[in-house]
Amino acid sequence: MSLRLAVLLMLGAGLCLGCSRSLDDPAKPHADLAPRAVVETVLRALQSNDEPTPDSGIATAFAFASPGNRAQTGPLPRFAAMVKTGYAPLLDHRRAEVGPPVATDGRLVFPVRVYPKEGAVRLYLFVLAESDSADCPGCWMTDGVVDRTDQAPAEVAA
């Protein structure tokens, strides 16, 4: 095998690995991403919020927000402030457990138990809807996240 061919093969393999990595942990929504994967992607991003840059996890969560959600909570700096004050337990949490979804009014509601780095376990409902926007038709996006920690765990938890 020539040196030139070997270099081309290594470059191709590197490009392929890069593609594979982006599919495993996408930064943006796409129509092939299942609803549960959307919730898991947002949770992973918030779990490592400041990696690779400060608030990049919050930026990923904002990218997965539905157009209606973004219209009410954006732009990004406003969204970031909201997450840091109202949803701080999601940032840098130790782990999260995603329960089975419930379909209601054309949306999927996922119960999520979050173990924050400090404090008691939190219970959230992630509400997803399929987008019909021109930006990402057929993409599942976050319509809202509701803190249900006050409810009995059996009602909300996975």
CATH-level-2 architecture:
Roll
CATH topology title: Nuclear Transport Factor 2, Chain: A
The value of Rg in angstroms is 18 Å
Q: What's the total count of β strands?
A: 5
Protein name: DUF4864 domain-containing protein
Signal peptide: 1-18
InterPro entries: DUF4864
Keywords: Signal
What key phrases describe this protein's structure?
158 residues; alpha+beta; Nuclear Transport Factor 2, Chain: A; signal; 5 strands; DUF4864; 41% helix; disordered N terminus; single chain
Task: Give a verbal description of the structure.
Strands 1, 2, 3, 4 and 5 form a five-stranded antiparallel sheet that branches. Helix content is 41%, strand content 21%. Mean pLDDT is 84; it is low at 1-25. Strand 2 (102-104) and strand 3 form a beta hairpin. With 158 residues, the chain is α+β, with helices and mostly antiparallel strands. The chain has a single domain, classed as Nuclear Transport Factor 2, Chain: A (Roll), CATH 3.10.450. The chain has helices at residues 3-24, 35-47, 56-63, 67-73, 76-86, 153-156; strands at residues 95-98, 102-104, 107-115, 122-130, 140-147. Residues 1-18 form the signal peptide. Keywords: Signal.
Summarize this structure briefly.
The chain is α+β, with helices and mostly antiparallel strands and 158 residues long. It contains six helices and five strands. The protein has a single domain (31-156), classed as Nuclear Transport Factor 2, Chain: A (Roll), CATH 3.10.450.
Q: What is the element layout, followed by pairings?
A:
Elements (H helix, E strand, L loop, with lengths): L2 H22 L10 H13 L8 H8 L3 H7 L2 H11 L8 E4 L3 E3 L2 E9 L6 E9 L9 E8 L5 H4 L2
Antiparallel strand pairs: 1-3, 2-3, 3-4, 4-5
Helix pairs in contact: 2-3
